[in-house]
Task: structure prediction
Amino acid sequence: MSRIDFDIAHLLAGTLLLISFLELYQDRLYALLNVYAAHALVLAASVAWQAFIQDAPHLYITAAIALVFKAIIIPVALHRIIVQLGIHREIEKVVGVGPAMLAGMGLVALSMVVMLRVTQDADPPAREDLAFALAVVLLGLLMMVTRRNAVSQVVGFMSLENGLVLAATGAKGMPLVVEISVAFSILIAFIVIGIFLFRIRERFDTVDVQAMDRFRGERR
Amino acid sequence: MVLIRDLAIQSAQMLLVLLLAPLFTGFVRKAKARLLRRQGPPLIQPYLDLARLMRKDVVLADNASWLFRVIPYLVFATTWVAASLVPTFRTGLLFSWSADLIAIIALLGSARFFLALAGLDVGTSFGGIGSSREVMIASLAEPAMIVIVFTLALIAGSTQLSTIAAFMTSSAVGLRVSLGLVLFALIMVAIAENGRIPIDNPATHLELTMVHEAMVLEYSGRHLALIELAASLKLILYVSLIACLFAPWGIETAGAQLPALAVGVAAYVGKLAVGGFLLALFETSIAKMRVFRVPEFLGAALMLGLLATLLRFVSASF
Result:
């Protein structure tokens, strides 16, 4: 593998990580959805590049799935949902941008330390992909923890799944069947979450998940 | 002989930066005005302003101390020295071996320290507001800048600007995501340090929002001229720094043949024009931030720098 191949893979994976941070930084829902679409777009490019350098044509299908479903259909659907719910101007956060960013940096450092130690004898691009993918997954989780709005939590979940796809393409030889089933299970999960959003809204007049805590009698 | 030639080139660089600085400020203003479909002041307006201020008398407050009178000269001198250390049309300048990127940051930091003191000196409330805000922005921008320098030094193996520029032109640099992140972080820090639009508006005199203008409100005459010139120098310094680090093409490296030097100067002027236009474009397309959002903006710059360092370690571990 030549140096430039590795460099481009590194560039795309690093961009994906950077966009995860942008998601943490955005506090408006519209902007958040646009950033999520960019996240999926970079993921598609990254997967396509892995397909090219690994000479694995089935990965192109994964890239196409990422492009069509995650970069186009899901953001458009979420746009329509938030317009219908009338929450496209809401800003909600549990912690501020600064602490969230610092926590994110800590998670990135943690995932790099862990992955570079654990995968000593894997080949470089897979190793590096795994390190970035773990960081993206952890940032997705962080996003779900730091937001109170259910739609932002869905976006966190979806970007977590992007990290999983990145990890899967870095490791050679994942069968296509698995990838397609993962993609569809994510789509199903998205539909279920979408229905739940409307149910939560009907019941509590808000998509702030704190309302549910209050309903259960819990106190934050 | 070599020493004399090096000295001549170094002084040419110092004069070039000094003479171009007001023109660059004028160019950015003109470009902004044209983008807003206004006519705008002529390009040489900053020179005319400076000449007018030089002719006018200095009006000093009764309770101004000697510090207040000395500070414009100090600010101008430190900024000018810092600007003369950044390679513009030729690397390997005589002075650049005596000071590196960290020294440049220190020079600019001391200039800012003195200016903040001057803002507090007379004891007006606006000066105090301006100084406190300036120091708040600086306390956030400087760590980010240090992290940026740290990453650059890790990649290029030196904090010496000439060495970094030589490394960036060589093929060893490759395609690095860390450098992209560092570029963005450096642009954010440069915007904050120069008080350009998302942080501070250089064209406004609205009391609630101004930072730099509030600090220098008490200055007049030649003192004000020196401070304005120092501000222009600082702007051109940051643009030259970004050009020297991330677009070092056309900078003349070895020898001192006249045609090569001419190419270097032409390339430098071209880079300045592109940088000024991009700055004007950015400023017309964005709104000013609230002061309380500045920490988030600069925190993002710091975060980018840290992320660049981390990514550098990942790519270096293979």
